[in-house]
Every structure is written in structure tokens, then in C-alpha cells.
Amino acid sequence: MENNNLNADKKSKHDLDNLSNEKIKNAYEFQFKNTDWTFYTEREFIETLLANRFNFLIVIYSLFITAFATIEGKENKLIILILGLVITILISITIYRVYTKLMINLKILYKLGDNHVFPIIKKELEGKRRNIGNVNQYIAIVIPLLFIISFILGITFIAFNYWKV
What we know:
Number of helices: 6
Largest sheet: none
Strand content: under 5%
Structural class: mainly alpha
Helix content: over 70%
Radius of gyration: 22 Å
Number of strands: 0
Distance between the termini: 63 Å
Number of domains: 1
Order of helices and strands: HHHHHH
């Protein structure tokens, strides 16, 4: 019974939705006054990290596709595609991890109040643009998933002789 209470306490302490806007504002004010690191600098760091990892994924994917196109032999092509799949999955996991941290940070920034940058920009953009959704989702989920699917399809086509090598 004591264990369940501890788990409930841990969950409630770390659940962002349970934090009041006032607590988040107080945390930001403390950061701003006492440290060089705020929610805004964290967002900048995380967004840069996400962009760098995504760019790295594109370079790695391009290298494996180029290797696949230039190498000869069924076994060699399978090896390239399998290696590409494994490396793409590993990089995609790191991208997704950074993406989740960015989404948490953005939630915090939107809760800071109407006088901060993010809520002001959100109000200005409402109704002025076509909503294509969260672009970060495309970078962190959709595109890596398409890369992974393309490797799986390539492996399947070659392994079952649908692709004549």
C-alpha cells in the first residue's frame, strides 16, 4: 500500500499538467534571476539538437541510398539496406527522444502567461495561416518513419526477388 502512494506521489510531482501556471512562472522567474539557463535557452538548445540530429539522419539516409544504388550484387545490397535500417532506427530513437523533450518545453513556455513570446505569437497566427499541424512531428516522427519503411520495403523486395538485381 505504501508503494502505491509513493508511485502516485512521484507521478503527480512530475506531471506537467498538474503544475499550475503560477508554479511555472515562479520557476521561470527563479531561473531568470539566479541562473544563465531558462526555459527559453532550453528550447533553443533542444531545437538546435533536434535540427542537427535530423540533418544527420538525412545525410546517413542519403549515404545508404547512394551506396545501395552504386553497389552490385543481391547480398551486398541486402547488407547495405539492413545496416541502413538499423542505423536509421537508432538515430530515429534519439530524434524522438529530443522531440518529446521539446514538446514538454513548449508546453511550459505556453503556460508562462500572456505577456511572454509564445502566447503572443500564437494569438497573432490564429486564423492567419493554414494549419498543417505540428511541423516538429514531421521531423521527429513522419520522415524517420518513411525512411525506415523504405529500407524495410527494399529489404523485402530484394529478399523475395521482387527487385531484379
